[in-house]
Automatic annotation (TrEMBL):
Domain called Fe/B12 periplasmic-binding: residue spans: 44-243
Keywords: Signal
Designated name of the protein: ABC transporter substrate-binding protein
A Pfam match: Peripla_BP_2
Cleavable signal peptide: 1-24
Species: Erythrobacter rubeus
Highest taxon, organism lineage: Bacteria
C-alpha cells in the first residue's frame, strides 16, 4: 500500500476507534432516560370566588379552564366584569369539572367532602384555601396560587403592599377617625377579620367604653344613635341601617362600603384601600 494511503487508513482507524465507545453508549440509552422536556403549566378550575380573583392575576389565561359561578355576578364578584367575561364558569359539580379535564382544582376549605372525594378518586389534584385573616396571610395565599400554577406573584403582591403602605401613611398624616363598619344584619367584624386590619391601617376603628367589638356582635340602631361614631360605614341593607334618624346625626357621616371589597384578600385589598382613602375626606362620594 502506498505510504500516503497507509497513513490515511491508519488515521481513519484511530478516529473510528475513538468514536466507538461514544457510539456504543448512545445506542444503549433508552428513550425514557433522556432529559425530559419542560412540562406545560397546569390547567386549572377554580371553585373559590376569592381564589378566582388571584388566579386571573397570576396565571396565564389559557391555563384557566373555568372560574366559580360566584364570579359571574358583577354585584358580588371581586373580578372586574370585563375580565370575568373572558372566562368560563362552573356550578361546582364534579361532573362539570371532570368534563373540563383540568390538572388542578382550587377550592374553598368548605368544599363538599363528596365532591372532593369524587374528584380525587378520578385522579384530579384538589387544593383548598381558607379566608386570610391578615395582609400577610393574603400574601402567602397569592404566593401559593402562583406556585401551584407556575405563575408569578411578585407584581400583585407589590401592588397590594403599595396600597397598604398608602393607608399607613394616611393614618400617620391624619390620625384616627372613630369609625364603625356596620355589616349586613347590623353586625360588626371582629379583630380577626381582614377588613378590620385594613380599617386599622387607615386609622378607621372604634371601641365602646375601651372594649373592642367582637366578631358578629350586633349593633342596634338605638345604641348607635345613643353613642354615634364620627363615621358609619354601611355595608348592608337592614332596615335600621337606612333609618332617617341616621341623617340627623350632626357630627356623624354615613357612607356606603360595598361588601365585595372585603369578602376576599388578594387584589380586593387594593380596591378597598383606595375606597378607604377616599372616605377619609369629608367630601367623599357615597358611591361604594
Amino acid at each position: 500500500m502506498p505510504p500516503k494511503l497507509f497513513a490515511l487508513s491508519a488515521g481513519y482507524t484511530r478516529l473510528l476507534a475513538s468514536l466507538l465507545p461514544a457510539l456504543a453508549l448512545t445506542g444503549c440509552v433508552e428513550p425514557g432516560s433522556r432529559e425530559s422536556e419542560p412540562q406545560a403549566p397546569p390547567t386549572v378550575v377554580s371553585l373559590n370566588p376569592c381564589i378566582d380573583a388571584i388566579l386571573v392575576e397570576v396565571a396565564a389565561p389559557q391555563q384557566v379552564l373555568a372560574l366559580s359561578h360566584y364570579s359571574r355576578d358583577a354585584a358580588s364578584s371581586s373580578i372586574a366584569p370585563d375580565v370575568a367575561r373572558q372566562y368560563r364558569f362552573t356550578g361546582g359539580t364534579a361532573e362539570e369539572i371532570l368534563a373540563l379535564e383540568p390538572d388542578l382544582v382550587l377550592a374553598s376549605t368548605f368544599i363538599a367532602p363528596s365532591t372532593r372525594s369524587a374528584l380525587e378518586r378520578l385522579g384530579l389534584r384538589v387544593e383548598t384555601f381558607g379566608s386570610p385573616k391578615s395582609v400577610e396571610e393574603s400574601y402567602a395565599q397569592i404566593a401559593r396560587v402562583a406556585e401551584l400554577t407556575g405563575g408569578e406573584s411578585d407584581k400583585l403582591i407589590s401592588r397590594i403592599e403599595a396600597a397598604v403602605t398608602g393607608l399607613d401613611e394616611m393614618r400617620a398624616a391624619r390620625g384616627d377617625v372613630d369609625t364603625l363598619l356596620w355589616q349586613s344584619g347590623q353586625i360588626v367584624a371582629g379583630e380577626d377579620a381582614l377588613v378590620t386590619t385594613m380599617l386599622e391601617r387607615g386609622g378607621l376603628q372604634r371601641s365602646v367604653d375601651g372594649e373592642r367589638l367582637g366578631q358578629g356582635d350586633y349593633v342596634s340602631l338605638e345604641s348607635l344613635l345613643a353613642d354615634p361614631p364620627e363615621l358609619i360605614l354601611i355595608a348592608g341593607k337592614s332596615t335600621g341601617q337606612h333609618h332617617p334618624a341616621l341623617q340627623d346625626l350632626s357630627d356623624t357621616r354615613t357612607e356606603a362600603l360595598d361588601p365585595s371589597l372585603f369578602y376576599c384578600g388578594g387584589p380586593s385589598l387594593i380596591a378597598l384601600a383606595e375606597r378607604l382613602e377616599r372616605l377619609r375626606t369629608p367630601k367623599s362620594s357615597a358611591t361604594p
